[in-house]
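Supplementary Methods. Inverse-folding protocol.

Structures were first reduced to a discrete structure-token string of length 174. This string, shown here, constituted the complete conditioning input.
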């Protein structure tokens, strides 16, 4: 059998009836933040909710990054990879208003320092509004409005400022 490279430099492969397709992307799961779903000692844990919990001073204006809690070579990540999911977008686990910053990572990476393990350190800022939170929807919307209008401090203020600048650019371009 000859070389898979033709004279034109194009790679030709005989897949023997198989097929090639781009890798799938997982979004909306705790993939990469948990080893055993209902076992708290194997999970990254929940983000503190700034609207219903008194925040410790040391993290008062900090936004949690999912990339800091990533767990590699979990059973679920390996199963996802074997089934065609090559990347995952995962946000910090939260049951409150401000979840934090999601990340994109490779489900095949053996550890965080491997080349290509983290493909995008920050993907999006995640905020949730809900009737089931301990504070009113009005309070949640007022807080979101305040943050979007630049009244946040520290890392929190910067992250919301970034959201506003991106949204304005997209709105102008649209």
């Amino acid at each position: 059998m000859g070389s898979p490279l033709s004279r034109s430099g194009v790679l030709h492969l005989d897949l023997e009836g198989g097929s090639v397709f781009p890798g799938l992307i997982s979004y909306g799961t705790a993939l990469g933040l948990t080893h055993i779903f209902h076992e708290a000692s194997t999970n990254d844990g929940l983000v503190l909710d700034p609207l219903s919990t008194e925040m410790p001073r040391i993290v008062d204006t900090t936004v949690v990054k999912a990339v800091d809690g990533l767990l590699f070579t979990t059973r679920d990540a390996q199963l996802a990879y074997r089934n065609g999911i090559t990347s995952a977008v995962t946000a910090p686990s939260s049951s409150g208003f401000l979840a934090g910053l999601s990340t994109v990572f490779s489900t095949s990476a053996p550890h965080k320092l491997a080349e290509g393990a983290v493909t995008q350190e920050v993907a999006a800022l995640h905020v949730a509004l809900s009737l089931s939170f301990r504070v009113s929807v009005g309070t949640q919307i007022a807080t979101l409005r305040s943050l979007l209008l630049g009244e946040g401090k520290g890392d929190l203020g910067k992250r919301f400022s970034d959201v506003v600048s991106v949204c304005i650019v997209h709105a102008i371009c649209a």
